[in-house]
Amino acid sequence: MLWKKMHVMFLSLLIIALLAACGSGGGNTGGSKAANEPGTNQNQPSGNDGKSSEGGATITVLNEGAVGVGVGVLADLLEKNKQKTITDETLNPRITEEDYNYTPGQRLQKAGLFPYYYQSIMSEKMQSKNITVKTEDWGWGEPLIQKQTAGFLAKNMPDIIVGETQMPGFAQQGLLEPFPDDMAQEIRDNVAPAAWKPMEYDGKIYGFASQPGVSSLFWNKDLVKQAGLDPDKAPATWDELLANVQKVTEAGKGKFYGGGVYAGPNAGGYLRYGTLLVINGGGFADDQGQPVFNSDANLETVQFLKELNANHPAGLMANTNEGTYFDAFKKGQIAYLIDGPWRAIESSQIGIEYGMSQIPLSPDGQAGNITIGAAFHAVPKDAKNKEAAFEYIRAMYSEEIQQLIADTGVRSPVLKSIAETDAYKAGYPEMYQHYLAMSGNVQGLPTFAKEDSKVWQIFGEAVTKVLMTKGDVQGIMDEAQKRAEAITK
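User: That's the sequence. What structure does it adopt?
Assistant: Structure tokens below.
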């Protein structure tokens, strides 16, 4: 019972950060004070141009919600947080000094301390290289993007920035420093593609995520069983998935439905049903940032979405509030769902007996995915301490950090030497399936050549129109393509 309670603590902390990272407008907007605003001298690393008084480098790193411990010198923050957590009986009455003694390879009994464990390891690694880490909080989502954009314009940036959907665009605009060649090769050889592939541009790697998410298929076994289906068998193809959701809808008689995937006109929708576009050989844009909305592969996928939509309560699949859709799964109103890895632990904690598998393939499709809840860390071109900053990122894919991530059971590690062991496969079979989904054709959301937000809006509105009306699919997508091209070309 204690383990479950602590796991819930960690889940709450992590889910808030992850959902914010889905780009849907919610989440941590950050409490940055004026001193931390980009474009001010106070935003620079302390000391002599990034040099500590002891002669080593001082790097500034933006906090990412899942592992943030506050704002300031990391080593000092860790000690303060530790003492406050132990002594504040009203906050954490069950946490003691011994709980901070993490043993690698053991499932975390005090999972709520994951941010402390993570940053403690990072701090020790940096101190061993005479690097001092200072953290700053610029928030998440749109507030973060706005501050980063201002910082780039002012040429006044931290040594390491973090973000999700905006990061590939920064790389394409030449605002980020490419990883050193030896480091990039080390990552390619030893790390799952989801951690770096979305940040690869023109043969260079520009960012890394230590615990990225990709989507999987989840289902409520009880609802599937009520439809006369095998609750332990995952649908392998789109045809099988559609047949299953139709059977569940029929069995539900208006009380529950088959479900499928959230397709709202926002980043939360694009991140999830975009995976179906990728699997079917389609996508949102070409390598020049030009829209490809009406490609044959996309038309097939959008038609499939329309068929899935018929197996939802009216308006649910395209609801502008993604939380409403996921609440329907949690309440047993829909059986099938495509979502990130956090859905596993959340379902377990609220008592849903669930199944989890890789996403089914279209008739001519190939395995593929889109990163979701992936916090990519990168070094800006204007960073003052690039060498030290890359040492920090190297530590993110170290065995110590990746073993810690493995031990949470909430995300899978990206380091092959840990994720591909027999011990991990046996101890975390579902997260191993998530690890497999992080390999191969894994992409991030693209950035369009011009007026990015307007072009996304055109696409989202077109898909919503397909789902909610009887209009011709090709005609709707052709019109969207024409409108988008008028902006981007």
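The CA atoms of residues 176 and 380 lie 4 Å apart.
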